[in-house]
Amino acid sequence: EVQLVESGGGLVKPGGSLRLSCAASGFIFSIYRMNWVRQAPGKGLEWVSSISSDSTYIYYADAVQGRFTISRDDAKNSLFLQMNSLRAEDTAVYYCAREDYVRGAFDLWGQGKMVTISS
Amino acid sequence: SSELTQDPAVSVALGQTVRITCQGDTLRGSYASWYRQKPGQAPLLVIYGRNNRPSGIPDRFSGSSSGDTASLTITGAQAEDEADFYCNSRDSSGNLVVFGGGTRLTVL
After folding, report:
1. Are residues A112 and B42, on separate chains, in Cβ contact within 8 Å?
2. What pLDDT, on a 0 to 100 scale, did the predictor assign at position A103?
3. Mind telling me how many Å the CA of B72 is from chain A's nearest CA?
4. Which percentage of chain B shows pLDDT scores above 90?
5. Residue A116 burial by Cβ neighbours in a 10 Å radius (0-12, 13-18, 19+)
6. Which residues of B touch A45 (CB under 8 A)?
């Protein structure tokens, strides 16, 4: 089955760290650009970061630049998001999303993982 | 500007046609993609490129674009179409991604 499954969410104190993982299956992971997108409770979608298929091109939203790090392990068909110096405003459901270079769209999404930043 | 603007809410009578718009400078040089999100679910791609539907998306969904505005049209809206709809595209550099604020569609 073609799917993305996130793991690693939870409750963290402000200033803490957390690492999200996204396991891909059912498709050739290594040829796709991958993204993280988040959604704060009751709010809209917010793009967080993207990583190219060969990890050469990595970009971040201004809100997380310098605090979050995206990476991938194609041998393990996995995408990661290391989140440091977490703030209350980082509280959200985090989705990993596959981006098809040809379609130019996010054509496969994980189910999402909740990250709560609270003391 | 790298912002995409959507109307917060739109309603449509059952079986009628509704257009949801997405406006932003970045759309002058790139297509928007459209996503449907139902409560408690992940977003689902419904339109990409000029006017393309992924497998499984009903043909009542269509997309169009003119100038700085992209549109998602649902022809013959069904009760199950009630959801939040988001547009996105890459910014002018092609490096960053931007989402619209979302439009909540109510089917009356």
Report:
1. yes
2. 87
3. 15
4. 93
5. middle
6. 35, 37, 43, 86, 88, 99, 102
